[in-house]
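User: Please predict structures.

Assistant: First:
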Amino acid sequence: MAILSLKNVVKQYHNHKAVDDVSFDVEKQRIFGLLGPNGAGKTSIIRIITSITGADSGEVLLDGELLNGYHPRYIGYMPEERGLYKKMKVGEQLLYLAQLKGLSTKDAKLKIDYWLKKFEITEWWHKKVEELSKGMQQKIQFVATVVHDPKLIILDEPFTGLDPINTNLIKEEIRKLKENGTSIIFSTHRMEQVEEICEDIVLINGGQVMLEGTVAQIKQDFKENTYRLEFEGPEPNFDNFKVVEKSEHSVVIQLQDGEEGNDILKHAVNQGCHIISFNEILPSLNDIFIKQVEAAN
């Protein structure tokens, strides 16, 4: 069952249709990539999901119910433009934000204490936000996003400003949240992060859905039947195949109709080739993203 469903959602600003008949589902306990170039409509969609703005038409359902005024407390949103109050102390700010999501003072303090201990930053409670580095502020923003145990978390460019160690720390927490039942929407321009983290994606361009599905299936759908063979010794003769790239110890072959990967292996073995590795080349999400957006434009 889907934790979130958008059905024929439309949002227009003056003469610009930012969201144009968009429909997609985010399944429960999945990490879902919301992708698209600048101006594609991603931010407008997120604002509708979080009830910051309303759709002009269409339906948004959270856990099977039409979106209503109570639902924001079940959603955690970490915007790309961070929203911390610079002059407030970390503890006071987290307490305030947690109470806005419906937690009592007692429960909020327990939850905040849990996360500060987990990140080994309990000494930050009395520090003002402006005293923290961008990376430290990012950690506080993440805690504010998840402290109320939301059903759905929306993370917009969550790794901006983080060093590699803290990036891995947040990635690990994202995976743990997912394993414990949370559903996560991950919005970013970094396609390598999408491939590493996301299970499903939707690609938005010009306010419309261009592509939707699991990461694995989309990569299969866009593959070009190319294989890389690495070898030692003299180069085998591959005149019977379509060679698209080769170097001293490797060759890339694109299969034609009726050919199979095993045909390449058999041909190499029959020539006495010492094979080091053989693998199918799947397109990266970055390649697919660029091709789809360029084709649409």
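Second:
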Amino acid sequence: MNLFRPFLSFALAALLPAFAQPPQPAELLPRETADGVVFSCLAPDATRVFLAGDFNAFARNRGGQVTDSRFAMTGPDRNGVFRKTVPLPPGLYRYKFAIEGSNAWTWIAPDYALHRDQEGNAYLVVDGQADSDPPAASARAAHTAEGLVHFELFAPDAILVYLAGSFNNWADNRDGRVIDLRFAMRGPDANGIWRASLPLPRGRHAYQFVLDGSTWISDPNAPGSPPDHHSFVEVP
């Protein structure tokens, strides 16, 4: 697959006139549902908004402009928000919003995206688990709810965080290094928190977090977890 052309077009898009966009609030974070990942963009003054990512060849834009209506988001609603639901398998993705005004285009990565690639695209980790309640503002110790075990870690400066434990062969690490994106947590959100939710059998499970594939840490929120040692969660 040739990924260079979409990135090159962003450089050309920089030459196009742009218009101001309001900040993207954290409540518009992408959310996983049974139907796919719901992307949302606040753009009350836009004519149209397109979702562009490496999952759709960056909306097949030409010179920063998108003409294919298949990539258009639905909206705006009464709050000025455009939305689009895209079925995505678990993995790591990059995306932006292409916003068309009355006589100008602009491309944005949402403010809540704390990590971006060299082209300014936002990163998104999809774990295949539907979101339920809105994310909490602070990380919590591993806990069970609705038949799943929920893991959280505050690590705003990490590029990737993996969940490794007795339940996934310690993320299939090789001499302490993890590279398999199946074990990547989702994040960071606007509060710097990474999350993963798993169905685990009853019993006591050991786990650690792996920052950027090589730095292993215990859960700082789990009671009695010494640094650099296993943390534990009990599934009743």
